[in-house]
């Protein structure tokens, strides 16, 4: 179980199962704390290093629907799950269960497998690609915890751009693509990724990779300067006008009732051709 308890003053207070954690949140820098007393309940705080109160488990697990996540406190303050993606996992499950037959999904920058496992649990065949071998191994453990060890998932440790180019040369094709690219990054062999430079090129290759059979493309972004309108335009320009484009803010609703901005989501779907900049999309 996950819950955003409060945020403000550049921090976010969250419950991950049995533990309450206090972590940095640039999106909360201009906000005051809604419930100052709640912060006293934190079991650990991350500020360059983890400061723990008491003897805490090194690893523990939480669930979102049928998907289980193994969590651990990393040296960068991450835990192995990005909760703002939960709304997308729910959408994926609903969207894929509506298909009459299993479809083939490519998940790029796939991290610890939330979208991969949500798609596989809904019956899709998935190719999971992330540049970090240790992260791919983590995602596989999540698959085992979720009872999906035998699901049709290929686990690939590779640079996203390089993998897509190779798939095009091989003639492999997909029905849907999921992308959650970082602002900056490096591939498995030191390849440089810069979202502002490389995202349009990658989407153009994904257009070719799904040509004639594309059901949807799901793109999330946390890069300053890339808001809903900009992501909408990029998707519309690279994927064409034959589908519906929805772009919106991702948010997480805190126990105090306020919403914490948590990036942007844009979706291209095989529908009517309308372009929409929509409502906020977030956890209830």
Q: What is the terminal-to-terminal distance? A: 13 Å
Major β-sheet, in short?
Answer: 9 strands, mixed
CATH class category name of the largest domain = Alpha Beta
- Structural class by SSE content: alpha/beta
Work out the count of structural domains. Answer: 2
Counted beta strands: 18
CATH architecture assignment name of the largest domain: 3-Layer(aba) Sandwich
Q: Measured on Cα atoms, how large is the radius of gyration? A: 19 Å
Description:
With 284 residues, the protein is an alpha/beta fold. Helix content is 25%, strand content 35%. The protein contains six helices and 18 strands. The strands form four sheets. Strands 8, 9, 10, 11, 14, 15, 16, 17 and 18 form a nine-stranded mixed sheet that branches. A hairpin with a 2-residue loop joins β6 and β7 (67-72).
